[in-house]
Write a structure and sequence with these properties.
Helix content is about 30%, strand content about 20%. By secondary structure, the chain is an alpha/beta fold. Helix 1 (about 10-20) packs across helix 3 (about 45-50).
Length: about 375
C-alpha cells in the first residue's frame, strides 16, 4: 500500500446524513450529489452507503460518472446536472441517466436518442435559470419548453429544478437574491402547470438552502458538500448554532502520508525548486511523498500550509513538487522516519486542520480541496 492515501470514514458519511435529515421535512426526497467522484471520496462506495441509508436519487455531472455507477450495479435514479456532448446522449439514455433540458435543440437530441433506443416517456428534468446565469430556461419560457417535451413523443417531464447563486451567503443581500430566485422558480413551475402539464419533482435546494430554507425544500433537496463533513461557505457551524439550528458534521476523508526521509540542514541550505526557502538556522527537514500530482496543489506551498506529525503541526518549506513536499521539523524533533503525516481530516485521526482550514488559508473552498485529490491516491474505506 502506498504511503500516501485517503482514508474514507463511511461511518461519518452515515452520521452526517442522519444529522442532515433533521433539517429535511417529512416526505421530501434526498438527491445526493456524488459528482466529481463524490467530491473526491469515491463515488461508487459513497453511493452504495448513501443508498443503503435511504437516499433516493444520485446526482452526477458527466455521463461517464453515471455510467461508472451503473457498471458498479447501482440501479437507483441518476440525475445528470451538467450538459453533455451530442454523442453522449445515447449513452446517457441507454444507462437510464436523467438529463436536464432547457432548449429545443437539447430536447430534440434526447428525444431522438430515446426514440432510437425504443424508450417511451423517457424522463427529463427542466432546468430553470432563475438567476444563476449558467444553464436553464427563463421562467417566462418554461411553459413553451414543457410543451416541447410533451410534444416530443418520447420524453416526459420528470422534474423541474433551479440552482441558487447566493444561498450559501448570510447577508441580507444574499437572502434577498435567494428569495427572488425562489419566486422566479415558482413562476416557472406555474407556467408549466398553466399548460396543463405536471412539473414533476420540484427541487432547488442544494447544501446551504437545505439547511436554512425548509419552506423551499419542495419535493426534493440536493445536498452535496455537507454529506462529506463540510459546511457550505458562510452557512457554517457557528452560523447555524447562532440561528438555533446547530449541526455537527464530521469530515469523511482523512488525507495522510508518511515521512519517507529526514534530512539535517545547516544554516544557508535551501530546499526545493527555485530555492524559495533557505534555512535561517540549523534544522531538520522531513520529506513527505505527496505533491501536486496527488492533489496537494503547488501554490499552497506559499500559503503557510502545515502537516501534522504526531499531532503537532509542521510548516511546509519550499515549493511543493509533483510527487513530494518538505516540512521543517526544527532541531531535535521527536519525528522519526515512517511516522504518519496528516494533511487534513478529523482531529481523531491526528489532523491539525481540516479541508476547510486549508481552504481559508489558500483562498478557496473545501469543495476544491477534497475534489483535487487525484485518482492515484488509494482510497481506503473504513467505518
Amino acid at each position: 500500500m502506498r504511503a500516501t492515501r485517503a482514508i474514507i470514514h463511511l461511518g461519518n458519511l452515515t452520521r452526517n446524513l442522519q444529522a442532515i435529515r433533521g433539517f429535511i421535512r417529512p416526505g421530501v426526497q434526498i438527491c445526493a450529489a456524488v459528482k466529481a467522484d463524490a467530491y473526491g471520496h469515491g463515488a461508487v462506495a459513497c453511493s452504495r452507503r448513501l443508498l443503503r441509508d435511504g437516499v433516493n436519487v444520485l446526482a452526477v455531472a458527466t455521463v461517464g460518472e453515471g455510467v461508472e455507477l451503473r457498471e458498479a450495479g447501482i440501479s437507483a435514479p441518476i440525475l445528470l446536472l451538467s450538459l453533455c456532448a451530442p454523442d453522449e446522449a445515447a449513452q446517457a439514455v441507454s444507462h437510464d441517466i436523467t438529463p436536464l433540458v432547457f432548449d429545443e435543440d437539447y430536447i430534440r437530441l434526447f428525444s431522438e436518442a430515446a426514440g432510437t433506443l425504443g424508450k417511451d416517456a423517457y424522463p427529463v428534468h427542466i432546468a430553470v435559470d432563475s438567476g444563476m446565469g449558467r444553464i436553464g430556461v427563463l421562467p417566462e419560457d418554461a411553459g413553451h419548453i414543457a410543451r416541447a417535451i410533451a410534444a416530443s413523443g418520447t420524453l416526459a417531464i420528470g422534474g423541474t429544478c433551479t440552482h441558487f447563486a447566493l444561498s450559501d451567503g448570510t447577508s441580507r443581500k444574499a437572502e434577498a437574491y435567494t428569495q427572488l430566485q425562489y419566486r422566479r422558480f415558482l413562476t416557472a413551475v406555474e407556467n408549466i402547470r398553466n399548460e396543463g402539464l405536471d412539473p414533476g419533482l420540484r427541487h432547488c435546494c442544494a447544501s446551504a438552502a437545505s439547511l436554512t430554507h425548509a419552506d423551499m425544500q419542495l419535493d426534493m433537496v440536493r445536498p452535496g458538500i455537507i454529506l462529506y463533513g463540510y459546511y457550505a461557505d458562510e452557512v457554517d457551524r457557528e452560523y447555524l448554532a447562532s440561528a438555533g439550528t446547530p449541526l455537527d458534521l464530521t469530515p469523511v476523508m482523512t488525507f495522510e502520508s508518511e515521512v519517507s526521509a529526514i534530512r539535517h540542514f545547516t544554516k544557508g541550505m535551501s530546499v526545493g525548486y527555485g530555492r524559495t526557502w533557505i534555512a535561517a538556522e540549523d534544522t531538520d527537514i522531513a520529506v513527505i511523498p505527496v505533491g501536486y500530482g496527488d492533489g496537494l496543489l503547488r501554490r499552497w506551498g506559499s500559503c503557510g500550509l502545515q502537516l501534522a506529525i504526531g499531532g503537532k503541526p509542521y510548516p511546509v518549506r519550499g515549493r511543493i513538487c509533483m510527487d513530494q513536499c518538505m516540512v521543517e521539523l526544527g532541531p531535535d524533533s521527536p519525528v522519526r522516519r515512517w511516522d504518519k503525516a496528516v494533511i487534513f481530516g478529523s482531529p481523531a485521526d491526528g489532523a491539525a486542520q481540516d479541508a476547510d482550514a486549508i481552504a481559508r488559508t489558500t483562498g478557496t473552498i473545501s469543495y476544491e480541496i477534497t475534489s483535487c485529490i487525484t485518482r492515484r491516491v488509494p482510497r481506503i474505506y473504513i467505518e
